[in-house]
Amino acid sequence: MTELNQDGRKIGDTLLEVKNITLSFGGVKALTDISFDIKEGEIRALIGPNGAGKSSMLNVISGFYHPQQGEVWFRGQKRGSMRPYEVARQGVARTFQNIALFKGMSTLDNLMTGRITQMNTNIFWQALWKGPAEREEIAHRERVEHIIDFLGIQAIRKTPVGRLPYGLQKRVELGRALAAESKLLLLDEPMAGMNLEEKEDMCRFILDVNDEFGTTVALIEHDMGVVMDLSDRVVVLDYGRKLADGTPDEVRNDPAVIKAYLGGAHA
Amino acid sequence: MDHQSDTFPKLLSENSQRFANKVAMRQKDYGIWQSWTWAQMRDEVFALANGLAALGFQRGDKLAIVGTNRPRLYWGICAAQCLGGIPVPVYQDSVADEMQYVLEHAEAKFVIAEDQEQVDKMLEIQDRCPNMHHIVYDDPRGMRSYQHDHLHDFVDVQALGREFAQKNPEYLTQVIAQGQGSDISIFLYTSGTTGKPKGVVMTYDNIILTARNSVDFDHLTSSEEVLSYLPMAWVGDHIFSYGQAYVAGFCINCPESEATIPTDLREIGPTYYFAPPRVFENILTTVTIRMHDAGKLKQRMYNYFMGVARKTGVQLLNGESVGFQDKLLYSLGNLLVYAPLKNTMGFSRIRLAYTAGEAIGPEIFDFFRSLGINVKQLYGQTEAAVFITMQPDGQIFADTVGIPAPGVDVKIADNGEVLYRGPGVFHSYFKNEQSTRETKNEEGWVYTGDAGYFAENGHLKIIDRIKDVGRFNDGSMFAPKYIENKLKFFPHIKEAVAFGHEKDYCTAFINIDLEAVGNWAERNNVAYASYQELAGNPQVYQMMLKSLEEVNRSLAADKLLSNSQIHRFLILHKELDPDDGELTRTRKVRRRIIAEKYGVLIDALYNGAKECFIRTEVTFEDGRKGAIEANLNIADVPTFAAVKEAA
User: Fold this and answer.
1) Where along chain A do its domains lie?
2) What residues of chain B score a pLDDT lower than 70?
3) CB distance B142–A152 less than 8 Å?
4) Which residues on B lie below 8 Å from A211 (Cβ)?
5) What number of C-beta contacts closer than 8 Å exist between A and B?
6) d(CA B487, CA B92)
7) pTM for this one?
8) DSSP letter at B472?
9) Distance between CA atoms of B212 and B336, rounded to whole angstroms?
10) What pLDDT is attached to residue A261?
11) What is the DSSP code string of A245-266?
């Protein structure tokens, strides 16, 4: 079924579904019986207090953690135990809470690494950089240049990312995730540590990515204003359990959520 | 000349044959310099013109151009001219209200806007501009969800034009042939230093004759390369990037974005360059700061060879002879320091550079000239299609602006005002006959509003705006801009405003230069969190005090202006900003607004107070407003006795 959200964007069928996920590290239960779905074209937020299991959940989706129980369904197929790069090849890209770029490499080169899952020539062709490898690299470069243009980072194209301010590094990281041309984009706290202007820019980019490329976005964020404005639906986690799931309005008025955030039950 | 096309569309046709395969325009896009030859450019312009015609563009209609320097916006200018219409470029960083005034006043029926940001402004003011029918946008990003009734993608308009051309193959040729030199070619709105902007009406003859004269004066050829980065609404860009480019057939290059201009400049290496003094100042500041960070050996080399350049560079550039040893040293310096430095600045290939609009500090001027960069000054204004006076090669002085431009007559009125007439003199102010009559008399002389005089060598010297030249209470002359310029020549002073008319003595507001002073603070472990905090720092006050003392010493030596020594000053807590109305878009001080807004501070400068409280409203870049408060210190400056005239 196709429905339209309030901005007139298209929300399609279920893209990813997690069913009864339970993840534990030794005796610590990080996630307990979590189920929710992400639909094609939507912006889905994952929120919760510190230690609620948000990043663990994201790591399960990206294939970094393997849950003891439960299933992950992606594009209508149950996913077996996969390594992260296999998940990436399936069309899931992500950014990290702590920036994980190659600091010594330029913005351009960092973005080019995002294309790795799309490259078909082998290492020998690439070393020779003739024929198919050259053609392929030109095509990838063109794609990357579109992303540079999209993010407005032309001026830092050749700057080593280690020299860039934090907000720009976050933007480059988003760029690298975009370069993978994924179906599903996982953003782990994309606005953490940013000032107001940088946050506004980042919001704009997330909305534009969603709008222009039709990319489905799942994001973890602490800034409630941002979450409520950006997302179509919100999942609330607390102590590894799902507390609520619904539109921003529904979630905002849910007594359990208010208690978790304001009630100080476990302050 | 044998080729006498009298309008730009005719020149375009001519150039598309003369220079068919020569590159006319480049723009960096997706990391690559995309280029168009004159023939390709003609096709693009004609497709757009036909498209506009298909949308109903008539002879005499106005087309507003809103955006940064992009090929498609330049094509828009020529496309409107093809149809006998009038292009109206608008300052793209104006807020919506300012744009509304210009678009409404010009009766713009069509708009070409750069991107979503500019389209949003147009949609915001659409209700108040009943004439505005069609908006064409260049960059489609973010435009998908907009209603497209009156909104058109640039490429769609061109496609429409190609269709139209098939059905009406003769139409465009005919309308172009109807145009003639005396027709109106463009409206250029003044930046509005005093009151509302005025629409300066220019004819093809104005622009083309002036462009031809200046191209001949400086021997510009079709092989020049220019970087177009100054606002398209400004007459300078219209002459340098459009008029002269069409007349001489040279290539203009549009930067990738505002932030990449320095990189793009380096990649293009223009041969012909224009920049206001501020830009040259910034370059020098950056070079100086970066040399501080360089290794010991490099610093010593730089200092030594810059000494050599200071001694002989200017003479060499002027074609004067210097000793053999000096010549040898200079060549060595060129190899080791000047050439690499020029390469970093993007001036490796530069043949000619102009600066105008403000006085340029002699040190800055000489710095560039001593490196062998032929920077010259000119004096001009919108109403003259730029050129009033220009410096001929070999006769370059920092404190004068040259001799009358070819075909231009200049005279000084009894009150000291500079008057001129010539081929570039504007047609009229749009819908403002009274101002036209006040500015241009029956004999065609135009009042510049500037006070100046001819120095003994026949070169013009400009002192200040005639209306700003005031008197102290004792009757002696007060020329605020002259004083402000002296202050602004210091790298750590960004802006200054002097007061003194109908007062006993001279005082000043100072704006520190955040880059220069911030760098100094970093080196000297001075912690600061904001502009305001740095501006209020006592050590910064000491630094300014030293500069002001120096200014006073030099003013004391000038018998006309020894009374203008600055007695008291303060450092403002915020930067003067065009968004707050304190500066014009071309960054000229708006005295009346500043006097109103900071009245309390001016009073404090004259009542002996040691500090003063002020609350100021500020406008952020997105149009929201906020307020900042501060307690400002006021400092006294030592003054000097007027130096007696030497015997």
Assistant:
1) 1-91+183-267, 103-181
2) 1-3, 192-194, 558-560, 643-647
3) no
4) 142, 144-145
5) 34
6) 30
7) 0.82
8) -
9) 39
10) 75
11) EE-HHHHHT-HHHHIIIII-TT
Establish if A214 touches chain B: CB-CB under 8 angstroms: no
What CA–CA distance (Å, rounded) separates A174 from A101? 10
Query: Which residues 138-177 in chain B show a CB within 8 A of chain A?
Result: 141-142, 144-145
SS3 B486: helix
pLDDT in tens, B435-479: 999 999 999 999 999 988 888 889 998 888 888 888 889 888 788
Architecture of domain A1-91+183-267 in this structure: 3-Layer(aba) Sandwich (3.40)
A20–chain B nearest CA distance, Å: 38
Q: What is the DSSP string of B411-469?
A: EE-TTSEEEEESTT---EETT-HHHHHHHB-TT--EEEEEEEEE-TTS-EEEEEETTT-
Place of tokens 């009864």: A20
> In chain B, which among 6-45 make CB contacts under 8 A with chain A?
28-32
Q: How far A135 CA lies from chain B's nearest CA (Å)?
A: 16
| E-strand stretches of B282-374 | 352-355
Flag if A155 and B29 touch (Cβ within 8 Å).
no
Domains of chain B by range and CATH? 8-274 (3.40.50.12780), 470-636 (3.30.300.30)
B-interface mutation test, from A141, A149, A154, most B Cβ less than 10 A away: A154
Q: Across the interface, do A154 and B256 touch by the CB < 8 Å criterion?
A: yes
Residue of B nearest to A207 (CA): B142
Facing B260 at nearest CB: one of A108, A142, A155: A155
What pLDDT, in 10s, does the model give residues B355-383? 998 888 888 899 999 999 999 999 999 99
